[in-house]
Structures are given as C-alpha cells and as structure tokens.
Amino acid sequence: MPMDRTTGELLGAATRHSGSRCLALALVSVASTGAQLLLPAALGRALDLLLTHSPATRWVLCCTALALLLTLLDACETVLGGTLDARTTAFLRRRVTGHVLAVGPRATARFGAGDLVARVVGSAAQAGKAPGARAALLAAPAGPVGAVAALALIDPWLAVVFLTGAPVLTLLLRSLARGTSACVADYQRAQGRIADALTEAVGGARTIRAAGTADRDTARILRPLPELSRAGRRMWRVQGRAAAQATAVAPLLHLAVVAVAGLLLTRHRLSPGDVLAASRYAVLATGVGVLVGQLSGLVRSRTAAARLGEVLTEPAPPYGDRRLPRGGPGRLELRGVTARRGDRTVLDGVDLVVPGGTTLALVGRSGAGKSLLAALAGRLTDPDAGEVLLDGVPLPSLPRAELRAAIAQAFDRPALLGTTIEDTVSLGHASPARVREAARTACADDFVRRLPDGYATPCADAPHSGGEAQRLGLARAFAHGGRLLILDDALSSLDTITERQVTRSVFGRSTAATRPATRLVVAHRASTAARADTVAWLDGGRVRAVGTHAQLWRTAGYRAVFGTAEEAGAGARTDATADARAEAESGPGARR
Hints:
Helices cover 64% and strands 10% of the residues. The chain is α/β, with parallel strands linked by helices.
C-alpha cells in the first residue's frame, strides 16, 4: 500500500534501528518455510518405502528431524518477533515523544493531549509490529511459490491446475489491503477523539463533580463510540469477507489438485507417496490464511505509523548558533510581532522594549494576549510575523541550551516534574543550597520542611494546594537563574500576604535567588502592576500604552481592566493593608 514520505522514513528508521533482528527473523522464517517444503517430500518418500516394505528408517528419522526443526524454528520466530516488536515500539515512542517535546505547546494545540497520548501509546505499539510483519512477509511468498514449484516437479499438470485459481487469490489480497487501510484509519481517529475528551475530563474532574455533570460529560466523551463501532465492524467485515472467500477458494484448489493427483495415480504416473506430497503442497500453496493475517497486520501497522507521521510533520522550532553577549543586561525587544491563533489575530504588530534590569507588568482584559506575549518572549512559540530579541540577538538564532539557560519561566499551573521535591525545583541544574535559597524566596521552604522527608519527599506523596504548587514553580524559576524571568500568571493562587512577600523579591533589587536581571510579569491585580517599573497595557491585540501604573491609572479604560474605579480603589486599599501586614510579619526575626 502507498505511504507518504514521512511515514516511509519513520518505518525505514525503525527497521534500521533493529536491522539485525529483522534480518534474523527473515532468515528464520525462510528456514522454517524451507523445512515445511522439505517435509512433504520426505513423508511421501517414507510412505512409498513403507508400502513396498523397503527399509525406511533413514526417511522416518529425516521426517522426525524436520518436525523437531520446525518446532525449534517456530519458537525462535516467536521470540524474535516479540522482541523485535517491543524494541521497535520503544524506538517509535522515544522518537515521537522527543519530537512532541521539541515542538512544544503547538503540538498539543494541534492534536490535543489525549490524542497525542493515544498515538504515542496505542499507535506506536501497533506501528511497532511493522518491521516484524515485513520480515515475515518476505518469507511468506516463498511457501506458496515453493509449493507450486514442488507440484510442478511431481507433475506439471498439478501446477497448471493450481495456477488456474491463483489470480482469484491475488485479487482477494489486493481487496483486503485497500479495504482494511481505510477502516483502520477511521477506527484509530475515533480512538484518538475519545482519548482526547477523556484526558480533558480527567483534568477537570473536580469541576465536573461540583457541577454534577458526570452523565453529560460521559456522553460527550463516548460520543465517537458509534463511529468507533462502525469502523471496527467494517474492518472485521472486510477481513472476514476476504478470509471467507479465501476459505472458499482454497479448498476448491486443494480438491482439484488432489483429484488430478488421484487420476494420475490410477494411470501409474504417480505413487501414493507422490499423492500425499501433492496434497501437502497444495495446502502450502493455498496458505492464504497466513498471508491474509500477515497482510492485515502490516496494513494496520502502516496506518498506525501514518498517525505517528502526522505528528512528525509538525515542524520543531529551529535553533541557531549565535551567542548572547557576555554580561548582557537582559534587554527584551519585540519588533512588529504578530501572532494568530486560528483565524483570530491575537497580537497585531506589537512593538515593545523591556530595558535590562527592569520589571515590566503586562496588563489587559482576558483574551488580550498577555499569556501569548509571555510565551513569545520565552520562545514557547514563535510569532507569525516580526521578531523577538534578547540583548539584541533574535531568539531563533540562539542554540537551544543557551536560550533555555537565559530564560526562567513560571506558570499558573506548574508541572511538578522529578522524583522528589528537590528534583522538581532543581531539574538537575541547581545545587541543594540554591534550591533551598530559591524555596525561601518563593515562600515554599516552610511547608516543604514540614513534609515527612522534607526536600527528599517524593512529589507523588507530597500533598500540596494550588498555592503551594505555584510556590514550588516559582522556586524552580528562581533556582534556574538567567537573564530574563517570565511569570505568566504565576502568582494567581497565592494568598495576599504570600504574594506580597514574593513580589517584593521579584520586583525588588536582584538577589542571588532572583538572579534574572529583567522580569516580565503577567499582572491581574492593581497592586502587582503598581510594583513594576513600567506597565504595558494590551488592548485589541496592540500595546495601547506603556508607562508607570500611576500614569496609566489616570485613564478610565486602564482602571476598567481591574474592575470599576470603586472596586479597584477598594482592592488597592485592601492590598495596601495586606502589604503592611506582610512587611510586619517579614520583619527582623520573622520566619519567611
């Protein structure tokens, strides 16, 4: 069946990865086929000798040896096939997982988290069988071809009788390949949609339970189930029809060969042993059932590989080899940046400069593009037009390692990776002393020390609230260091007092824990924006104004971002009170 270039290259790389095993499996399959072709001749010869009361010990022993050899080869084929499938599956999963992580958030946006998991887990396991199926199929035709040749050697008429039905078998196999491919593709697409909806529901399990919409969401998740069922039934109908037709044709050919062999026996042109051998060879020649199974498996594997190929067609962002200037202050600049999501232009020609060593707060209504701008600044995504520069160097021109070392980021829902709390804060880049200093700066040290094993507590066994998770995410960003610190709504789950303590460290003078010289903060509270050196007000996909919070506060539209003037004023007073309390609690001798 035809394959696109990406799928072909993927399967080719998977086959080369286990080339020696593929070759060994092919050789074992060929040897097994050869033994199967020799056995009928040996049985026929032994039968003729026994019927004439001639010594047949050697031929009986030969038949026994061939039978034992077939058993051994079958065991070897099973072991080689299983290990080859497992090795190839692991290779494909590593390849696709690495590409997904290299592409970043764009991969999840295109395919959905659940669909990606279904492809990496299910499709990779199915595609992993392709090299084994290919190796087996290389030897599979040798059985029918060798059997037809053996029939011709016994008597040419036996081969002629069999070959009259061979075109029918060929058409059956072609029909099976075409029909199975379309059905399997539909089946796997429906599986991906179910997995995507299920992943989304698992992530929002608390919301579903609180809203009492479990039944409705169950129906939503399982909505593609009828399509899945239809595709599955079509797939089995295609395979069942092909198998039934082959089953109907194969016995007729077998009977025809046996009938002609019997006729030739009555004319003394064949011996009883020749008839037995011809009967066995006719079975081997009509072994369409084996071919149908192997061909169906190969079609399913190629279809699954095509789904993996779709993921690999999503290009990973390129990197360059330029270096950041040594000792650069971390100046961030956006020039004519335009970013679209679908048909919507979220950011339109944005020009923005964040001088090195300063803090810029991004402010705007929901959907104004604050998080997208933060993602562009950290090169989690690339703009559709324009460029983003750090210390005068375009971000795509930097090597991956230098780019990631220069930019630290924290998010509203940090992923706590690593085996222990210390691992998740350091990610293998920070010393234990720096991890603890960063945790103190993020106000996470106290609750971490109260855990059963402190910083050695496994992440899976460490209960933590949303605010505690955010503090660990902040600690990780502080421990990372670099020239630029980006906080994308990373303070949203903190209580007011804790937020004041953290923002005082973030917006104050750089320390060892807050080493990044330049800070970009997505702000939702007026008090947070007031602490920044400057504020960029996003509105309608553009930067409407840049200035201090006090300057922008004179504009009604800016005040409306935080609510009505009265609400914002009340919020500012509350924030001021909380700030004073935080100052008092963090004074000399206070625990942070």
